[in-house]
């Protein structure tokens, strides 16, 4: 008995596009190709000390909280600065903070939060702080060389299905030495816990310091280069540069001004920069101050940039009128 092609092959529906959470930097969102960090995935952010790993996680939490999500921050290193997170814009009353004592507690807390289905983003800072309980109990005289890689590998396998069902994103940070200790062995050979995460992670971001940001011979921030080492959604090995200011974190208005000028949205009208008929000051610094004071104008420019480069449309909120 002959059957038609429609009977032989079942019809499958196209999967819905994955939700994303903005990283807090428009340039990084565009480099990712999806408009942000994808949900229901493992993410690894690694780099040397003071390269902006924690700041990038905090700004991602800010964007998730703006969208109504609930986030958790597992501070393995016990180094979270409440004042800095508040200056980045984190609503600490809506943030779940945990400071576990060992790797077993960290992974157990992560599994409980991820399987609950109530959280949008879980940040584990950092992977180098995952120390097994047996190592802590061995004492200084007889330290044990026990890796947390088996614990992490088993946890990632158990959580891979749960985060897909619940749409939870788990972000791991890890600190790398600024210089390689050996030219023979790879970095993963000295840190076997990262090998399991490398295989499970859908997104891996490598951060490095490009240089300081100066204002009147005073360092006010750092320019950070982000290299997308792995990206399962879009092509990898893309680059983005972020400006992290020591006052309030990632300078998103700088991304909006630079990209808006490249696309011709912000034009020079006489001695003034202007968006449509809205004056934005004579130079870049004045334009950034005006965009910061007027989030409605910044949101409208960002919406046009995302629509042109990514085909995404976002709601514009805030007052567009400029102060007199």
Tell me the overall shape: elongated
Number of helical stretches of at least 4 residues:
12
Measured distance between first and last alpha carbons = 80 Å
Can you give the mean pLDDT? 86
Biggest sheet layout? 9 strands, mixed
Number of strands: 14
As a percent range, the share of helical residues equals 25-40%
- Give start-end ranges of low-pLDDT stretches: 180-185, 313-324
Q: Give the topology string: H per helix, E per strand.
A: HEHEEHEHEHEHHEHHEEEEHEEEHH
Strand content: 15-25%
Q: Order of strands in the sheet with the most strands?
A: 5-4-6-7-3-8-9-10-11
Structural class: alpha/beta
Rg estimate, integer Å? 22 Å
Structure explained in plain terms:
By secondary structure, the protein is of the alpha/beta class. The chain has helices at residues 5-8, 26-32, 53-66, 82-88, 103-116, 133-137, 149-166, 187-190, 192-200, 252-262, 284-293, 295-309, and strands at residues 20-21, 37-38, 42-47, 71-75, 95-98, 121-125, 169-175, 203-214, 219-231, 239-245, 249-250, 266-269, 272-275, 278-279. The longest helix is centred in the middle third of the chain and has 18 residues, at 149-166. Residues 180-185 and 313-324 have low confidence and may be disordered.
